[in-house]
Amino acid sequence: xxxxxxxxxxxxxxxxxxxxxxxxxxxxxxxxxxxxxxxxxxxxxxxxxxxxxxxxxxxxxxxxxxxxxxxxxxxxxxxxxxxxxxxxxxxxxxxxxxxxxxxxxxxxxxxxxxxxxxxxxxxxxxxxxxxxxxxxxxxxxxxxxxxxxxxxxxxxxxxxxxxxxxxxxxxxxxxxxxxxxxxxxxxxxxxxxxxxxxxxxxxxxxxxxxxxxxxxxxxxxxxxxxxxxxxxxxxxxxxxxxxxxxxxxxxxxxxxxxx
Length: 259
Fold this sequence. Notes:
The chain is mostly helical. The chain has helices spanning about 1-20, 30-60, 70-90, 110-135, 145-165, 170-175, 175-205, 210-230, 235-259.
């Protein structure tokens, strides 16, 4: 069991690392059409994961509350939104293709703030894996270990383009090797967040529905605040929509087939 848990925790980090390795394979920055498709794909995966792997299990686990079974999911969801909103306000960061810094004013390098933007994305993704693993380990029949693995694989798939999208623009500024390391470093937060969430959720089992929904809210915030606007901006926005549909379907299939 511990071996499977370790694999599930590390799979998303592997996805980010492989994406970051694209700096050694591609001579130029990623084509804008491909970039928008991948951003849309990542958004679709996150939305599907939030619904099938997090919100629905949260409500199913609370069905003993009758008509109020929605309460843990709704409360956790809103708290997750608030958590990412606060992070956005207190951490200086810069989004790809944006010249305007967000959060407190800082003299940090552009490369550092780009990495921090992706790191913020990765916190809820890592936490969601840890929380679902905790639910599976408690023996709750609403969450299975196969479902946790499906979530981990889905996040890894969408982490691949994120790793590439963060590392490639940094290649000219800091060089291939350092750009790769920075892309990898942005993903380190995922296994850390997963382990912390796993340990906390294991000790507060009655609150797992809240924590599942919390992770969903945080992920949806990232999708609505950043991924969808970035994929829809400018020309070729339809490719972002197609990417979203593909990502949603892939994650839905993974969750149903493996869960």
